[in-house]
Amino acid sequence: MSIIIYTGPVHSGKTSALQQWCSNRKDVGGILMPDIDGTRMFMNIQTKEIFDAQCKFPGQTTESLVKIGRYHFYEAAFQKANDILVNTSPELRYLIIDEIGKLELQQKGLYEGAVYLLNNYSKNLILVVRDSLIDDVIKTFHLTNYAVITTLTELK
Fold first, then answer.
1. β-strands 94-98, 28-32: how paired?
2. CB 73 within 8 A of CB 62
């Protein structure tokens, strides 16, 4: 497996660049987490299905939420995203997890999908990681063989 850490500062356009990069490709799967109209969403790369990740009004829901910083996310949305990751075809050339961040460092969020893929996927796994968390992600997930890129033109 080839592990690629795609990194940059917070809100630097990593997800937008990945959306554009994979928009017409059939060999890419996984999850992107775009910001649409100020709300974080999940996008299944293969099907283009978009579903809510962020709860904008946490006091007005009975659904289980996970809080990180000022954000509240639906636990069910993370479970659905993890299911997508675990069930993505192993034949795809690239699989993307957007993103491995503070929740995943606490074994929440997309942690389950990330661990599964790190142990079972054999091609190119792209992990989106903000630049300030690279060392923590490498340590938490026990990464040893990986490449760090800051632009998608570095992908072969």
1. parallel
2. no
pLDDT tens for each residue of 92-111: 999 999 999 999 999 999 99
DSSP 13-81: SHHHHHHHHHTT-SSEEEEE--EETTEEEEEETTT--EEE-B-S-GGG--S-EEEETTEEEEHHHHHHH
pTM: 0.95
- Identify which of 96, 92, 90, 86 has the alpha carbon closest to the alpha carbon of residue 27: 92
Other C-beta atoms closer than 10 Å to the C-beta of 122 total 10
Q: Distance between CA 14 and CA 16 in Å, rounded?
A: 6
Beta pairing, strands 35-36 & 50-52? unpaired
What percent of the chain is predicted at pLDDT more than 70? Answer: 99
CA distance 12 to 9: 5
